[in-house]
Amino acid sequence: MKYYWIKNGKPFAWQTYDDRISQQTGRGTLSISKPSDVDLGQYQCFAENQYGIATSNSVFMRKAELNSFKTSQPISLTGNEGEPFNLTCQPPDGWPKPIVHWIYFYTNGGFKTINSSRMTLDPEGNLWFSNLTKGDVTENFMYACAATSPTKYEYKYGNRVLLNVISTGVSASQNKHEPVLQYVTRKNEVAYRGKRAEMYCIFGGT
What is one term from the GO cellular component aspect held by the record (predicted)? Predict the structure, then answer.
């Protein structure tokens, strides 16, 4: 059996490279020990014998990366107690697509992932409060959007927010608000067979 490769539509002579690239004995599999930018591209393997030629699916090698947030300066926002609210995230570009979440970023440098039944993350990375409480005021922390790379095991944070909540002067039991639609999945959504699909319906109110 004879194996050979093409890269970006042209014959790929991996033997002419340094010892970073090797082919498994008796198989067509290539091993790249120290990938670099020169290795990026589209690859396809061919296997040939006296009966014919078989080809593999094309494989596109991309560089895993996670860029930084465009802005890192904190901003101050104000909301009213009991009312719905949202924090906007502008996550950085990256490959694979970064995983986005929000954290409490403390003044001592520590952080904790936000986990509250009043707060919901939409697929664009924005954080929705069903209603604000006095406990949401930033005293020894800021809200921050964080992006994590699923392959590089690193994270970046940005869109830091200092939040002030204006008190209504009435008890929570009296401070009621009707339900309001905050976010819903668009009407025409594409789902792929065998893949996970999520439909969002986020409401605010008390």
Answer: axon
